[in-house]
UniProtKB/TrEMBL annotation:
Keywords: DNA-binding. The lineage of its organism: Archaea, Methanobacteriati, Methanobacteriota, Stenosarchaea group, Halobacteria. This is DNA-binding protein. CDD domains: HTH_XRE. Residues 26-48 form the HTH cro/C1-type domain. SUPFAM superfamilies: AraD/HMP-PK domain-like, lambda repressor-like DNA-binding domains. InterPro entries: Aldolase_II/adducin_N_sf, Cro/C1-type_HTH, Lambda_DNA-bd_dom_sf, ThiN. It holds the Pfam family ThiN.
Amino acid sequence: MQFVEEIVVDEFLPTVRSMLAGELREQGFTQSDVAEVLGISQSAVSKYAHGDVATNDRIERDERVVSLVEELAEGLAAGDVTPVQALIEIEVLIRTLEGGSDLLADLHEDAVPELADYDASFRVHDPESALRTSERVLSSLRGGLRLLENASGFATLIPAVGSNLVACTPDASDVEDVAGVPGRIFDVKGKATVPADPEFGVSEHVATVLLAARRHGADVSAALNIAYDESTLATLEERGHVTAEFDESDDIVSSVSAAIESEPDATVLYQTGGMGIEPLIYVLGPDAESVADAARALI
């Protein structure tokens, strides 16, 4: 049994580190400098330099890998890219190469041929499989929630009813296709607190707003509700958001639909409250992390 992560550890990382080490040495880095940037020992750098570490020819020849390594080496040498930024860029490339029938997926199926022949409803590396789609949504949602939890001051934007950050699958049709926080996000002693890991089907209210906006043409996949304030709304408009008002005392779906029809490019929906209804702002976006970033910018 071999997992794709083992391919990454045993073949991809040694190959990319070797390529980066070589590029950095050409940029004038000392062996010590290379070791510090890559987070490895000087002896490991020496092994890369002398070809004592096995690398994968297919990975070395891949144009995307070559291009990224060259770009990162130049950025690291110039000080325009930090080691953390380089790590993130490599992580993004790994996720790309794991999908569908891409490089790492192919290497995995070469190592475990039974995967390609397995009689199942989806291939393990099929990017369109329901399992992988759901996991991508949850991963993005976790990332967005981390941004909100770590954003000093976000608690001031949380309404009395609590906030919820939600995200949906590409073909979402009902609340079961929308993931959110069970119990919502609350202000606990001035800190935004997420009580549980995100799940599908746990948000009805914010999910309904998101789905209604999508059904009427809004190109969005995530939403967050925050407390209404005229200055907050004005700041969102200053930052380029198109806003549209709706009446939450009426049927939400029809009200949101009317708002989107009046402002097709709206990325912020709001209602100013009513009898027993707290005024709220709903920030919409392409994914949970983008929505969380938009909220952080308000602090």
